[in-house]
Amino acid sequence: MSEKIRFDSLPLSEGIQAAVKEMGFEFASPIQSEAIPYVLEGRDVIGQAQTGTGKTAAFGIPMIEHIVPFEKFVQAIILCPTRELAVQVSEEMKKLSKFTKGVWVTTVYGGDSIDRQIKSLKAGANIVVGTPGRVIDLIERRALKLNQTSMVVLDEADEMLDMGFREDIESILEEIPNERQTVLFSATMSKPIMALTNRFLTDPKLVKVVKNEITNVNIEQLYYDVKGRAKMEVTTRLIDFYSLKLVLIFCNQKKRVDEVVEELMLRGYAAEGLHGDLRQSQRTQVMNRFRSGNVSYLVATDVAARGLDVDNVDAVINYDIPLDEEYYVHRIGRTGRAGKSGKAFTLVVGSERNRLREIMNYTKVKIDKGVIPTFSDVVGVKKGMFIDRVAATIAEGGLELFDDALPNLQHAGFSVEQVVAALVKMNMGVVKNEFGDENLDGEMERGSRKYGREERGGGRFERGGGGDRWGGGDRGGERRGGGRFDRDARGGGDRGGRFERGGERDRGPKGPRMDREGKPYRSDENMVRMQVNIGFNEKISPSNIVGAFAGESGIPGNVLGQIQIENKHTFVDVPKEFANVVLEKMSGAQIKGKRVIVEVAKA
Questions:
Q1: Which of 56, 275, 342, 449 has the fewest CB atoms within 10 Å, measured from its CB?
Q2: What is the value of pTM for the model shown?
Q3: CATH superfamily of the domain spanning 215-374
Q4: pLDDT, tens digit (0-9, with 9 covering 90-100), for 273-282
Q5: Which CATH superfamily is domain 5-212 in?
Q6: Does position 492 have pLDDT exceeding 50, yes or no?
Q7: Alpha carbon distances (Å) from 397 to 323, 391, 405, 533
Q8: Which residues of 517-533 are buried (b: 16+ CB within 10 A; e: fewer)?
C-alpha cells in the first residue's frame, strides 16, 4: 500500500480507538492496513510478516472487536512458540483492550505455576494466549475448554513448527469447532506451513509485508570489521563514542552471554544476561531492571530475547553475527521503535563477511562499513560531555562552599592545569589499555592468517551433534525443515534414528547410530543422554519429544541433539547446561496424555 491509513478512519469501536491513541499510534502499519479489514470481516487470513511489523495489533484489534464482553468462556486463543512472545502478545492485547470492558486476557506457558494458570482460567477468560505444550496440558486436565472458541491465531507459526509443535497445534485445532475463524502469521511460507493452511484454513486471504518493508528505515545500520580478540574493546568504544544509554547486545550462545556480561561488568558497565538457563521469574526481574534503566546493557541470546518489547533501546549490537538472516531482522527490530531512531552495529570477524552479504541480500539493504572509534575519539567525546556538565553546574550556582578548594590545591604545589586535568580524568574514568594505540580493524590480519573451521564462521550451528559445536561449509543443508531430523536427506543408508521435521513418521525402531568406523555413536562430551519411559509403543514421534522438552523446560528445541526412539523408551541428547532444568521441569510432565519419567540414561 502506498498510502498510509489512519486508525481513526478504520471502522473500530470507541474503546479500541482510545487504546490506539493512548499507545501513540496514528497510522496503521502495512500489515495492519492489509489484515485488519479482512479479519474484521471474519475471513481466514494468512499473514506473512516478521516481528516488528505490528502484526499483534493486526490480529489483536479485530479479535477484541469480535469478543462478546463479560462472557467468561474462551472465545479466542492465540498460540505462540515461546513464553517470551506469549507474554509480549498478552501485554499488547491488554493494552488494546484497556478501554473495552468485559474483555479478559489470560496467559499460559510452561515454566510457570500451572495451578495459578488454572485458577486464572476458572476466574474467567475470553482470550487465552499460550504456548502449545502448556495449552495441551491444560486441555488434558480439563482446565481449558475450547468447545465454544470461535477464533484462533497461530503467531509465528514457522517457529512453532521448527520447535516441533506440529502435532500439538493440530490437536489443539481439532479441539476447536470447525466453524471458527483461523488466522496464521508466519515469516516464511514453507511447505509445512502451506500443508497446515491447506488442512485447517478455509479460503484464506493472503496478506504480506515485502522484504523492503521489513527493515525499519529509522535504524542506522553499520558493520565493523574487527579482530576477534578486540570485540569487547570495540563494543565499549561504540557505547562510549555514541553515548548509548540502553543497549541490547546479542550473542549466539549462552556461554558467550555470560562471558560478555562478566567482561562488561569488570569494565564498569551495568550489564545483565538473558538466556535459557534463567527461570521465568529471573527473566522477568532482568527485563524489569532493563526497562527501568537500572541495567543499561542487556546481553541476550536470540531465543531468550524473542518477544522482548522495550521502546527506548538506543542501539542493538550484534556481538556475534546471527546464524540466520531472519534473526538479524528480529534483532535490529528491537531498536528504532515507536517512530524513534536507533542504531544497529554488527561486529564481523574474518570471512563472516560472507554471512553479512547474505543478510544484505535478504533484507535488500546495504549495510555500510563503520569506522572503529579510536581511543582518542572516545576521550574527545567524554571531554566534551565533561565540559558541558561543568558549564551547567556553574550556571546553577551555589559554588561558594567550594571556593577554597582551588587555592588549597595550588598551595600544595599543583597548577590550575594539573587540577583540571586530574578532575577530568577522575570524572571520565577512561584508562588506556593494551588496545589503546592498536588498529582494531580485522582487515589488517586477514592477509596473514589462515582461518580454521571454527574461525571461518561460514557454517551454521550444527544442530545434530551438540549444543556448542559449529557446522562448516554448506548452508543449504541446515535450512528450516532439515537439519537435526533430516533422515537420509543426502541419500545413502539409514542414519540411525534421525528424522525429517514435518515429514513421515519413522516406521519402527532403529538400532544404535554408528560412526564412520562402524562403532556405536557416542554423544558429544557436552551433551547428557536422557531416557524417557515412552517410545514407539505409545506412537511417539520426534516432534512430540521436542515439543514437550521445549514447552515444559523453556529451552530452545533446536539445541537438542540426537533423538533415538525405541519400542518402550526414547533417548534424547541434551546440552549439559540444560540438563538440570530438563530434569526439574519434565518431572511429572505429560507427552500425548501420558505422564512421563525423564532421567539420565545409564551408561
A1: 449
A2: 0.51
A3: P-loop containing nucleotide triphosphate hydrolases (3.40.50.300)
A4: 988 777 777 8
A5: P-loop containing nucleotide triphosphate hydrolases (3.40.50.300)
A6: no
A7: 54, 10, 16, 75
A8: eeeeeebbebbbbbbbe
